[in-house]
Design brief:
Elements (H helix, E strand, L loop, with lengths): L4 E7 L3 E6 L5 E6 L6 H16 L9 E2 L3 E3 L5 E2 H8 L4 H20 L2 E2 L8 E3 L6 E3 L6 E2 L8 H4 L12 H4 L7 H16 L18 H7 L3 H17 L11 H11 L10 H7 L26 H4 L12 H5 L3 H21 L14
Antiparallel strand pairs: 1-2, 2-3, 3-5, 4-5, 6-8, 7-10, 8-9
Catalytic activity: L-seryl-[protein] + ATP = O-phospho-L-seryl-[protein] + ADP + H(+); L-threonyl-[protein] + ATP = O-phospho-L-threonyl-[protein] + ADP + H(+)
Pfam family, one: Pkinase
Keywords: ATP-binding, Kinase, Nucleotide-binding, Serine/threonine-protein kinase, Transferase
């Protein structure tokens, strides 16, 4: 990155994240070398579309399209918050869990599955200490009550091993409740300062790694998951998390069990967790209502079928000329093409160029 950025503050499966030096509330995502491709161009537009669709949802970070994200006056990720504070006090835990569930419920009401919830993809604002969901790169718009089929799942690389639901790890069909499981893992970490699944089937330091990394290197991943079920249940039931205030520990454990239920039919949705858990009894979260989401315009998410693998994102009008370009020249042309494509798809016209900040070089 250039002089306008500070130190690296995060790294994912396909990008590295930096904080802007002059504007601490601005975070820049730089694509890693192997991911500067047409495929990522399609994923980038998916992220833009989902962010624009969710821009009115409270608790979801406001995007400036692809690589710029408002971090709310220089807040920090939940991962950094846990490292700095350690196990959360009871009142703070209730607040953060309530805000996270409400934000996720708003996202689901708008028809979007996040698919990669983890402490690194959630922020805490510096001013109000409110939780925000970020990083919609792995998000998927499925509409109300939609499911992601197994054949579609096998083609998508999303999720992080230590926070993935069992159905995602097994490449089975899944729906909105896959996010409930991920959030349960985050809540345990907030309460104890330790990752829930690290001792079960994820080794130290592996929790936040992309699921695709393990699928490529560990063929026995499903066997590891199966053998971990007993260990996971023991950790939840016998070695229940010890909060600083033990009085509501059973209520919190009950909330965790309902979110981490392996049977998808029995697992609760975010809204059911808010309204039905004794952990939020007598709090504002027990009766909070969802705002009516704005419906997606007709054809808003048609880009994935329009630009599939058979019709890749065109870089120029002359395919033969494109073949002669060097990698550096191809990268520059790709960046220009993505900017034009995004302006056309999001705005329907070719202005607003100053709003686009997608650096693929």
């Amino acid at each position: 990155m250039g002089k306008g950025t500070e130190k690296q503050i995060g790294e994912g499966g396909s990008s590295t994240v930096f904080r802007d030096r002059k504007r601490r509330g601005l975070v820049i995502k730089e694509l890693l070398e192997p991911f500067r491709s047409r495929k990522v161009a399609r994923l980038s537009l998916r992220e833009i579309k989902i962010a624009k669709h969710l821009e009115k949802c409270k608790g979801v970070i406001k995007r400036r399209f692809v690589v710029r994200v408002d971090m709310d006056d220089g807040g920090e990720t939940v991962h950094d918050f846990i490292r700095r504070v350690g196990p959360s006090k009871l009142r703070k835990l209730q607040q953060m869990c309530g805000e996270s569930l409400h934000a996720l419920a708003q996202m689901h009401a708008a028809g979007v599955i996040h698919r990669d919830l983890k402490p690194e993809n959630m922020t805490v604002t510096a001013k109000d200490q409110e939780v925000r969901l970020i990083d919609l790169e792995g998000g998927r718009f499925v509409g109300k009550g939609g499911r992601v089929l197994m054949k579609e799942r096998s083609r998508s690389d999303c999720g992080s091993l230590g926070y993935c639901s069992p159905e995602m790890i097994r490449d089975a069909e899944y729906d909105f409740k896959t996010d409930s499981y991920s959030l349960g893992c985050v809540f345990y970490e907030l309460a104890t300062g330790k990752a829930l699944l690290e001792s079960a089937y994820v080794k130290d330091g592996e929790a936040a790694r992309p699921l695709s990394y393990f699928k490529a290197k560990h063929r026995q991943l499903t066997e590891r998951l199966d053998s971990s079920e007993t260990a996971l249940q023991k950790r939840l039931v016998q070695d229940s998390p010890k909060l600083r205030d033990d009085r509501l520990c059973p209520f919190f454990c009950s909330l965790l069990s309902s979110l981490l239920e392996r049977d998808v039919k029995k697992r609760v949705t975010p809204l059911q967790a808010l309204h039905g858990s004794d952990f939020f009894k007598d709090s504002e979260w027990a009766s909070i209502a969802l705002e009516e989401p704005s419906p997606a315009p007709e054809g808003f998410f048609d880009y994935e079928t329009k630009y599939d693998k058979k019709t890749p994102l065109p870089l120029c009008d002359d395919p033969e000329y494109e073949k002669k370009l060097s990698q550096h020249e191809l990268g520059r042309l790709l960046g220009q093409s993505i900017r034009r494509w995004i302006r056309s798809a999001v705005h329907g016209r070719r202005d607003h160029g100053s709003d686009i900040c997608l650096d693929v070089l």
